[in-house]
Amino acid sequence: MLDLKNQCLNPVTKKPYIVASSGGVNNSPEQLDGGLTHGYVVEFASKEDRDYYIKDDPAHLAFVKKLQDGGLVDEIRAIDYEPGIH
Fold first, then answer.
1. DSSP code per residue over 39-80
2. Can you give the pTM of this predicted structure?
3. Residues 6 or more apart whose Cβ sits within 8 Å of residue 49
4. Is the per-residue pLDDT at 70 higher than 90?
5. Dihedral of the CA atoms 34, 80, 27, 25 (nearest 10)?
6. Is 18 in a helix, a strand, or coil?
7. What is the pLDDT of residue 73?
Protein backbone atom coordinates (compact mmCIF):
# COMPACT_ATOMS: atom_id res chain seq x y z
CA MET A 1 0.00 0.00 0.00
CA LEU A 2 2.64 2.51 0.98
CA ASP A 3 4.68 1.90 -2.17
CA LEU A 4 1.77 3.17 -4.28
CA LYS A 5 3.17 6.64 -3.53
CA ASN A 6 6.01 5.78 -5.93
CA GLN A 7 4.06 3.58 -8.35
CA CYS A 8 1.11 5.90 -9.06
CA LEU A 9 2.10 8.25 -11.87
CA ASN A 10 0.33 11.28 -13.27
CA PRO A 11 -0.90 10.34 -16.75
CA VAL A 12 0.47 13.56 -18.28
CA THR A 13 3.74 14.21 -16.43
CA LYS A 14 4.53 10.53 -15.71
CA LYS A 15 5.70 11.62 -12.25
CA PRO A 16 4.39 10.44 -8.85
CA TYR A 17 1.43 12.57 -7.76
CA ILE A 18 0.63 11.28 -4.26
CA VAL A 19 1.77 13.99 -1.85
CA ALA A 20 2.16 11.70 1.16
CA SER A 21 1.10 8.32 2.45
CA SER A 22 1.39 6.69 5.85
CA GLY A 23 -0.11 3.84 7.76
CA GLY A 24 0.39 0.62 9.57
CA VAL A 25 -0.93 -1.88 12.07
CA ASN A 26 -3.48 -0.71 14.61
CA ASN A 27 -2.01 -0.48 18.09
CA SER A 28 -4.67 1.57 19.84
CA PRO A 29 -5.51 0.54 23.40
CA GLU A 30 -9.00 2.11 23.09
CA GLN A 31 -10.57 -1.00 21.53
CA LEU A 32 -12.69 1.15 19.18
CA ASP A 33 -11.29 -0.29 15.96
CA GLY A 34 -14.38 -2.27 14.97
CA GLY A 35 -12.13 -5.18 14.03
CA LEU A 36 -9.97 -3.21 11.60
CA THR A 37 -6.32 -4.15 11.87
CA HIS A 38 -4.60 -1.56 9.66
CA GLY A 39 -5.08 2.09 8.77
CA TYR A 40 -3.69 4.23 5.92
CA VAL A 41 -3.84 7.87 4.90
CA VAL A 42 -3.11 8.95 1.34
CA GLU A 43 -2.78 12.70 0.65
CA PHE A 44 -3.40 14.27 -2.75
CA ALA A 45 -2.75 17.81 -3.98
CA SER A 46 -6.21 18.03 -5.57
CA LYS A 47 -9.58 16.35 -5.86
CA GLU A 48 -8.71 15.62 -9.48
CA ASP A 49 -5.64 13.63 -8.41
CA ARG A 50 -7.74 11.77 -5.84
CA ASP A 51 -10.40 10.98 -8.42
CA TYR A 52 -7.81 9.73 -10.92
CA TYR A 53 -6.33 7.49 -8.21
CA ILE A 54 -9.73 5.99 -7.37
CA LYS A 55 -11.11 5.54 -10.88
CA ASP A 56 -8.26 5.29 -13.38
CA ASP A 57 -4.76 4.84 -11.98
CA PRO A 58 -3.51 1.46 -13.27
CA ALA A 59 -1.17 0.89 -10.31
CA HIS A 60 -3.92 1.53 -7.76
CA LEU A 61 -6.48 -0.53 -9.68
CA ALA A 62 -4.03 -3.45 -9.91
CA PHE A 63 -3.41 -3.20 -6.15
CA VAL A 64 -7.17 -3.27 -5.45
CA LYS A 65 -7.65 -6.27 -7.75
CA LYS A 66 -4.82 -8.13 -6.01
CA LEU A 67 -6.50 -7.56 -2.64
CA GLN A 68 -9.89 -8.64 -3.93
CA ASP A 69 -8.68 -11.70 -5.84
CA GLY A 70 -6.29 -12.83 -3.13
CA GLY A 71 -8.79 -12.68 -0.30
CA LEU A 72 -6.25 -10.67 1.68
CA VAL A 73 -8.78 -8.21 3.05
CA ASP A 74 -12.10 -8.91 4.71
CA GLU A 75 -13.30 -5.31 4.89
CA ILE A 76 -12.19 -1.94 3.58
CA ARG A 77 -13.47 1.44 4.71
CA ALA A 78 -12.55 4.70 3.03
CA ILE A 79 -13.24 8.29 3.95
CA ASP A 80 -12.20 11.51 2.28
CA TYR A 81 -11.74 14.83 4.06
CA GLU A 82 -10.24 18.25 3.53
CA PRO A 83 -8.03 19.60 6.30
CA GLY A 84 -9.66 22.47 8.15
CA ILE A 85 -13.20 21.64 7.05
CA HIS A 86 -15.19 20.32 10.02
1. EEEEEESSHHHHHHHHHT-HHHHHHHHHHHHHT--S------
2. 0.88
3. 10, 17, 18
4. no
5. 100
6. strand
7. 83
